[in-house]
Amino acid sequence: MSVVARTADPYRDLDVIDARAPRANQTAVGLGAALGVVTGWWPILALLAAQLGIGLRFGRRYCLPCVAYFELIQPRIGEGPIEDSRPPRFANQIGFVVLSAASIAYLAGLPLLGAAFGVLVAFLALLAATTGFCTGCQIYRIGARLLGIRGRRLDRVDLADVGVTSRPDGDIVVSFGHPLCTDCQALEAEVRASGRRLVSVDVRSQRGLARKYGVTLVPTAVAVAPDGRVVARVAG
């Protein structure tokens, strides 16, 4: 088996994840949920819920589909794009809740309701696995933006916070990103290529700034005027 260099350690760099890993997990959950509904053996749904819950609580080392991907598949096909791990984690939380509800419904003598929940999980998981469209991830992104607007809207950046000590001549782009994030690297390269001044904020080492400015997803980038006003959202 060939050994492929990783930019992100799957068990230590938990802020990010290989974008292909969630799809491996979604495949296992989708097929398992479909099998449980079709055969009527609902304990499969309970086992899937338990597996998701254990992985969420104790980490990727205890997520069997994740371990299978990182140890058996990734070394053969290489590392995929690295993305923010929060959206797929939220999707797993939704899957855990719905699968738990399905199991409880079966236990309560409501097999039709349990089957409906199981079919929902199977459909959404297989949709994500085959097309890349993750409903739970999209819900996270929409919710994060709404919560950010309700909380502290990103309409001003104190330039001293990001290391700009003198008043700039024009607008600058402030990018909140993670050093391993593929989209963050591409965004910053694009900004530099355009000739715009870029200030990069590493949210891994500057978590306080990420909290202060309500950064719930990377990359998040804004164009900032010399007086600190946010004049445009570039990404996020």
Q: How many angstroms does the end-to-end distance come to? A: 38 Å
Gyration radius, in Å: 21 Å
Question: Got a strand count?
Answer: 6
* Element-level helix/strand string: EHHHEHHHEHEHEE
What overall form do the CA principal axes indicate? elongated
Largest sheet: 4 strands, mixed
Strand fraction band?
A: 5-15%
- For the largest sheet, list the strands in their spatial order: 4-3-5-6
As for the number of domains, it is: 2
Structural class: alpha+beta
Unreliable stretches: none
Helix content: 40-55%
Number of helical regions: 8
What do the pLDDT scores average to? 92
Explain the layout of strands and helices:
Blueprint: E1 16-18, H1 20-39, H2 43-58, H3 64-77, E2 82-84, H4 86-107, H5 111-131, H6 135-150, E3 172-177, H7 182-193, E4 198-202, H8 207-212, E5 220-224, E6 230-235
Parallel strand pairs: 3-4
Antiparallel strand pairs: 1-2, 3-5, 5-6
How would you describe this structure to a colleague?
The chain has 236 residues and is of the alpha+beta class. Helix content is 54%, strand content 12%. A four-stranded mixed β-sheet has the order 4-3-5-6. A two-stranded antiparallel sheet has the order 1-2. Helix 1 packs antiparallel against helix 2 (43-58) and helix 4 (86-107) packs antiparallel against helix 5 (111-131). The longest helix has 22 residues, at 86-107. The chain is elongated. The two termini are 38 Å apart. The model has no long low-confidence stretch (mean pLDDT 92).
